[in-house]
């Protein structure tokens, strides 16, 4: 192994909300192995995924650019990524790194030397999903093959993404009741939501009445994944790589469970969907056991990684929109942002503006939840965003909307590019359908690129 360069491992966990991880204070011990890794590094308490869903999330993460620069706002963008935007594997390849990505097929995320997919949507003959085990079957041989070179390995874990079907003994780890108890009624509104009803019935237990069981399965999927990720860490130790490794654990977006009727999915701009974990571990450069407050966004990851690997000048050369996290870690500034822009273009087309106290959400077209066109939440007094104050606080709406629109106009002027979310129309006839249909929706549509 080269001793001149630091290796990079990014674990990107799809649909992982920060507040269901035990290292973020969750009441269930869902991630004990990741918790121990976090104790060896820095945990960011206020990390956000500002552009929902997956494709803009990972594009932002790998490019260091915001949505106005990279123009990727939808799950399936209308065109290819701007060739002038450099992604992290491309930058590192020019500096002697080999790279591999597990979890995507390479149609959109350019620059990796190897791409591996795994059956992240397949239900086994035992009626459970073994996503993380399938991931390890691809990831560990790749890791071993690259161990004697400077490398960048990106793992896209899918366990917290529905269907939540973790294998035994995890499936009963957090639930001992009767999920078919007829006195329970919490699944009635879930199955009444027609756009998702067929999908839910295709993988949830027949006759289920208790939504707490599904939440427990989400948590159990985290626990199962956590054990499998430990296998990656064990192999790194065996290969004597841990001390010369920058490890990043984060997510493309969170997940709503029952909140705001966005059942068991990741649409909406509410906190469960946009608040994500971010953990950095690099013993030679970063403190251990540190928790950092202050707002950080996904575009901050690439410039931070490059600086830690010794290539901080590259972020400046390519004019990345993100900001290094090192000043926060070192106590040189309290936050990277005092307010920031949000977008979602999945099942609802919305944008928003978040400050420490307020969140404004503006619909760009009617949605199938029949949400109000303007939502305003006081995050200090109402952190769960249950009370829409848009009508009671029109001046706050006006001020926040003006700030948001001014930022959009400024970024359009700076980039010379249009507002990407205005290029879409979703309509009210959207639905997921079966598991196969949901899997196909996740696939990148090459014809639309």
Task: Describe how the helices and strands are arranged.
Layout lengths: L6 E7 L18 H7 L3 E3 L2 E2 L2 E2 L1 H10 L3 H4 L17 H6 L4 E5 L11 E3 L14 H16 L4 E7 L30 H5 L1 H8 L9 H28 L6 E6 L20 H4 E2 L1 E4 L8 E3 L3 E2 L3 H9 L2 H6 L8 H4 L10 E6 L3 E6 L3 E6 L10 E5 L15 H22 L19 H8 L7
Parallel strand pairs: 1-7, 1-8, 2-11, 3-12, 4-13, 5-6, 5-7
Antiparallel strand pairs: 2-10, 3-9, 8-10, 13-14, 14-15, 15-16
Helix pairs in contact: 5-8
Overall description:
Residues 444-449 have low confidence and may be disordered. A hairpin with a 3-residue loop joins strand 13 (340-345) and strand 14. The protein has 14 helices and 16 strands. It is of the alpha/beta class. Helix 5 packs parallel to helix 8 (211-238). The protein folds into two domains: 7-182 and 210-338, 3-Layer(aba) Sandwich (Alkaline Phosphatase, subunit A); 341-429, Arylsulfatase, C-terminal domain. The strands form three sheets. An eight-stranded mixed sheet has the order 6-5-7-1-8-10-2-11, with helices on both faces. It has a five-stranded mixed sheet with strand order 4-13-14-15-16. It is globular, with a radius of gyration of 21 Å.
Estimate percent helicity: 25-40%
Give me the number of helical elements. Answer: 14
CATH class group of the largest domain: Alpha Beta
Give the low-pLDDT segments: 444-449
In spatial order, strands of the major sheet run 6-5-7-1-8-10-2-11
Q: State the order of secondary-structure elements, H for helix, E for strand.
A: EHEEEHHHEEHEHHHEHEEEEHHHEEEEHH
Seen as an oligomer or otherwise, the chain set is single chain
